[in-house]
Amino acid sequence: MKNHKPFLVGITGGIGSGKSTVAQIFSILSIPIYYADDRAKWLMAHDPHLKEQIIAAFGKESYSAEGELNRSFLASHVFADEDKVKLINSLVHPAVRKDFEAWSAAQKSPYVLKEAALLFETGSYQELDKVINVSAPLKLRMTRVLLRDPHRNEAQVNAIIDKQLPDEEKNNKADYVIKNTDNKLLIPQVLKIHQELLNTQIGN
């Protein structure tokens, strides 16, 4: 195989769709996974330039005296305000993009996966070669989330769902759709996509 940068594949899905489970299956196949949402939190806490930008935008209360991210302050003063959410996203998303570029360039795999809840909503899917959407019926997703996160109620889950594109729209935008329902096996679907992606790279 020619020496080139890895093929960039996104994996997304609404809350409770099971995208993390699907990502784990790809991980078992030795495909590197970049967890964008976790990485964004890490960068907000550790990237000096991003920290400076957040403090400039939202004040010193954004971090504790020890320099730790003040999550309760951000939750009550930033994430409750749609304009402030757009502002913080405009700071965090470029930092994540730069971090992902550096991470993916260091990988030796034929392709890598970027796992993120809001790939389509943020427009970051446009920087990827292919996108996989993990799809599941709304009722099943709600049941999964309430079982997984007992501290959440139905209204809170619906509030999160409202900020995400409808499943049908994601399916139409995605290159691949994995159906994570109770009567559909996940592993054969993942293996089929995995083989297609490998074949694409061999063809190049």
UniProtKB/TrEMBL annotation:
Protein family per UniProt: Belongs to the CoaE family.
Family annotation (Pfam families) = CoaE (PF01121)
Provenance organism: Cecembia lonarensis (strain CCUG 58316 / KCTC 22772 / LW9)
Q: What is this protein called?
A: Dephospho-CoA kinase
What role is this protein assigned? Catalyzes the phosphorylation of the 3'-hydroxyl group of dephosphocoenzyme A to form coenzyme A.
Task: List, alphabetically, the GO terms of the cellular component aspect.
Answer: cytoplasm
What are the binding positions for ATP in this chain?
G16, S17, G18, K19, S20, T21
Quote the PROSITE patterns the UniProt record gives.
DPCK
